[in-house]
Design goal:
By secondary structure, the chain is mainly α. It has 7 helices and no strands. It starts with a helix and ends in a 7-residue tail after the last helix.
């Protein structure tokens, strides 16, 4: 009996985790199949893009930035055309106005913020989103190490296309 209860609990947990982060607006119910997301750039492609971004990000450790982004991957994707999860897709975040993705339900605080994501906004956001913007629904506790934030910002920059002036 105890084994049956434990097995049932494991199956229930697996079922709930399988749907974690998906919202009803992210799933397609009819029509043609969704276009698969474009592949993320390789580390070599990212290093080539990195040469064109400003200091100190052009010398940041992209591998560390990618590793630190893994902390975000339970809620965010960064692949081109990737889905929104609990948080919005972060591909092309640098240069994007905060709260801009139409099919994502942002907090009122973020929608009303009026800023455009750049290094000057990403750094305090990654340090502690709730301090940087009270009222956000972002639950990330933050990255304390400034080098880790620099590396992650560089990683996000190379995953963002240059914006037209």
């Amino acid at each position: 009996m105890r084994r049956l209860v434990v097995t049932s609990m494991v199956l229930a947990l697996a079922a709930s985790v399988a749907g974690c982060g998906k919202s009803s607006t992210d799933t397609q119910t009819s029509g043609p199949p969704a276009t698969p997301p474009a592949p993320a750039p390789t580390l070599e492609e990212m290093k080539a893009r990195q040469a064109a971004i400003p200091a100190p990000y052009n010398a940041a450790d992209l591998a560390n930035g990618q590793a630190k982004f893994a902390l975000c991957a339970s809620c965010h994707t960064i692949a081109p055309g990737g889905p929104n999860l609990t948080g919005p897709n972060l591909h092309d975040i640098v240069g994007r106005k905060a709260g801009e993705i139409a099919k994502y339900n942002y907090s009122e605080a973020l929608k009303a913020s009026g800023f455009t994501w750049d290094a000057a906004h990403l750094d305090p956001w990654l340090a502690n989103p709730r301090t940087m913007l009270p009222g956000t629904k972002m639950s990330f506790v933050g990255l304390r190490d400034p080098k880790d934030r620099t590396d992650m910002i560089a990683y996000m920059m190379v995953n963002s296309a240059p914006k037209a002036p």
